[in-house]
């Protein structure tokens, strides 16, 4: 039975139908392929002609220009116009527009976000007000911004929050001690493998250990959130506030102390950490 399709088809399913049809055409005899391709090109040329006329008319009227901008914010309309070369792919402009639309929601919760750039699939943002920090609402707002940007601007695959990071400092000299492997020290990665602003989970016999590098200060904790024990390595590090936010339910922790800032009675389990000859050693208890 033929599957029926409606205007409710989303962009993904429509694109999948097109891909499937193109793949089927590629398997046809050369003469049939040529006919199918000619049909495809003729329909596309027809659509391009009509779309170009529509866009030209819209651009001639101030209200039309506004409508056009609204239309281009729709991923399906945008994809169609880009395919026909009628609009230029400009993720930065569209991301700004998406953020403008999300702004009333952010501001109603006391927050804001500023889009600095979009480059190589990454949107660089600065967060303000209650979007910044480590409360549950800040986490929710950041999630909201991320969701709308990734959904509305397919060229963006991830966000990066810009901060005024302090200049890198050298690792604590007191950490430069010889590891005594007989006392349970476990060799971890090289320091260069955990650059500033990143974290890494390493397996040990006593469970996974999370190594965090915040502004070139290394810390080690059991990789288990103090809320429900889930892993923290997919969480969000905020170098400006020195916090780590759990990806599961948004509990926020002070990276230097492991103290939970969302539920003060909770605490991450810290482990001793040393650096010897550029190698990180941890001692899970
Ligand atoms: S498991 Fe981390 S906040 Fe729930």
Report the span from N to C terminus. 62 Å
Taken from the alpha-carbon principal axes, the silhouette is elongated
Strand content: 15-25%
Largest sheet: 4 strands, antiparallel
- Report the helical percentage: 25-40%
User: Which molecules are bound in this entry?
Assistant: FE2/S2 (inorganic) cluster
- Beta strand count: 13
The strands making up the biggest β-sheet line up spatially as 5-6-7-11
What's the rounded overall pLDDT mean? 79
Could you tell me the radius of gyration in angstroms? 26 Å
Give the uncertain stretches in residue-range form: 1-8, 164-181
Count the DSSP helices: 6
Topology:
Layout (H helix, E strand, L loop, with lengths): L10 H16 L3 H30 L2 H11 L2 H9 L7 H18 L2 E9 L2 E8 L6 H17 L5 E4 L24 E5 L7 E5 L6 E6 L2 E6 L13 E3 L4 E3 L6 E3 L15 E2 L1 E4 L2 E4 L3
Parallel strand pairs: 2-3
Antiparallel strand pairs: 1-2, 4-13, 5-6, 6-7, 7-11, 8-9, 9-10, 12-13
The structure holds FE2/S2 (inorganic) cluster (FES).
Kindly list the characteristics that best describe this protein.
285 residues; alpha+beta; 4-stranded antiparallel sheet; 3-stranded mixed sheet; 35% helix; 22% strand; elongated; disordered N terminus; binds FE2/S2 (inorganic) cluster
Give your account of this protein's structure:
35% of the residues lie in helices and 22% in strands. The protein is of the alpha+beta class and 285 residues long. Helix 2 packs across helix 3 (62-72) and helix 5 (91-108) packs antiparallel against helix 6 (136-152). Residues 1-8 and 164-181 have low confidence and may be disordered. The site of FE2/S2 (inorganic) cluster (FES) has 9 residues, from loops.
């Amino acid at each position: 039975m033929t599957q029926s399709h409606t205007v409710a088809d989303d962009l993904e399913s429509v694109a999948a139908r097109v891909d499937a049809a193109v793949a089927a055409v590629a398997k046809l005899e050369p003469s049939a392929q040529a006919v199918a391709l000619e049909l495809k090109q003729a329909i596309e040329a027809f659509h391009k002609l009509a779309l170009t006329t529509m866009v030209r008319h819209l651009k001639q009227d101030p209200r039309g220009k506004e409508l056009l901008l609204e239309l281009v914010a729709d991923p399906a309309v945008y994809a169609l116009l880009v395919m026909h070369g009628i609009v230029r792919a400009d993720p930065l402009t569209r991301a700004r527009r998406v953020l403008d639309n999300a702004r009333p929601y952010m501001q109603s919760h006391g927050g804001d976000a500023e889009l600095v750039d979009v480059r190589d699939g990454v949107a660089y943002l600065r967060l303000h007000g209650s979007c910044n920090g480590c409360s549950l609402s800040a986490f929710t707002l950041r999630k909201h911004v991320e969701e709308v940007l990734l959904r509305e601007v397919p060229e963006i695959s991830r966000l990066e929050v810009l901060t005024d990071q302090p200049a890198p400092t050298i690792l604590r000299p007191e950490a430069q001690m010889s590891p005594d492997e007989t006392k349970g020290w476990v060799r971890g990665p090289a320091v260069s493998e955990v650059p500033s602003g990143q974290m890494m989970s390493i397996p040990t016999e006593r469970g996974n250990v999370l190594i965090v590098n915040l502004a070139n200060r290394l810390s080690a904790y059991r990789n288990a959130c103090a809320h429900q024990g889930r892993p923290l390595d997919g969480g969000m590090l905020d170098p400006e506030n020195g916090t780590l936010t759990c990806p599961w339910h948004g509990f926020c922790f002070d990276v230097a102390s492991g103290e939970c800032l969302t539920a003060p009675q909770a605490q991450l389990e810290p482990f001793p950490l040393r650096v010897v000859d550029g190698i990180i050693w941890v001692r899970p208890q």
